[in-house]
Design goal:
Blueprint lengths: L2 H7 L1 H22 L9 H22 L4 H10 L12 H25 L1 H11 L14 H18 L3 H18 L7 H7 L6 H7 L4 H4 L9 H5 L30 H10 L19
Helix pairs in contact: 2-8, 3-7, 4-7, 4-8, 5-6, 5-7, 5-8, 6-13
């Protein structure tokens, strides 16, 4: 059995192992060097956030006969997609696919901020009053299902190799936990890392209650997309330690730290004023 065959055959276990390992590392780092003081106890928030993660995982497994990696295998067998139309070396196809998938996630993220109906769903992610490793996996189930459909469409059009999809899924989960971490990096390290990757200080700006700051720094993994498309903002107006995190109108709402509350938020709160082009966001020069 080749490495690729082993990886694809054991995809669920590989992803779970990576998730648990990185989660444990980030959780320990948050204890050792927190960036911000917590507003809520870990017990309350983590029970809700991780409960939502588990619910979403079961829901996806029940509703989709294929995981993304299995779907990529099917696409390759049937010759779907651009990369399957060209005889590229495997490593080039893999790199191109991982980068293209990351770009697709950036565009999807912008779309969920630009369309008011999608923002209603996405605000569940932003409504977390604290910002830590669990925030990176906290999404409304309907958003998760829509994201899966978009991911399948991108894989089919791109013809992404199954190994590239597996690598991307692991990278996306890892970087989401990293850049949502309540951790403090030395200034020089942060500045160097964000030339390539989205850092916690960079992404935390995106979780500001200020809608101009919310509608910036959309990247989850590579930081280059925000720089290329003018959505990069180097810092919030307020210091990282004192900036307000969450969604205006939901700050202090106990539903934001309740699993059942998160499920109903899109149906009771419009998040008016946040969607790109539908609010009062201040014009600013990307810095």
């Amino acid at each position: 059995m080749t490495f690729n065959e082993f990886a694809l055959a054991n995809e669920p276990m590989i992803r779970l192992t990576a998730f648990i390992g990185i989660f444990a590392l980030m959780a320990a780092w948050e204890v050792a060097a927190p960036r911000r003081a917590r507003l809520h106890s870990r017990a309350a928030r983590w029970t809700a956030n991780l409960g939502l993660v588990m619910f979403n995982t079961v829901l996806v497994r029940l509703l989709f006969p294929f995981a993304a990696v299995a779907f990529a295998t099917l696409a390759a067998q049937r010759g779907w997609g651009l990369l399957n139309a060209f005889m590229l070396p495997d490593w080039i196809a893999l790199v191109l696919a991982v980068v293209a998938l990351d770009f697709a996630i950036y565009l999807q993220h912008v779309m969920f901020h630009a369309v008011p109906a999608l923002w209603r769903l996405h605000q569940v992610h932003h409504a977390d009053p604290d910002f830590d490793v669990t925030t990176g996996a906290r999404f409304h189930p309907i958003e998760i299902l829509l994201s899966m459909l978009i991911k399948f469409a991108v894989i089919a059009v791109l013809g992404a190799p199954a190994t590239a999809v597996l690598i991307f899924e692991i990278l996306l989960n890892a970087t989401a936990m990293f850049n949502h971490g309540n951790v403090k990096l030395p200034g020089g390290v942060d500045a160097g890392l964000r030339l390539l990757l989205v850092t916690p200080d960079m992404h935390r700006v995106h979780h500001s209650t200020d809608n101009a700051e919310t509608n910036s720094n959309f990247g989850f993994n590579l930081s280059v997309w925000d720089r290329l498309f003018g959505t990069y903002r180097s810092a919030a107006r307020l210091p990282q330690e004192s900036m307000d995190i969450g969604v205006a109108g939901l700050t202090g709402d106990p539903r934001c730290v309740s699993m059942t509350g998160m499920l109903v938020i899109p149906f009771i709160h419009s998040g008016e004023g946040y969607a790109i082009g539908h609010g009062t966001e201040a014009s600013h020069e990307a810095r």
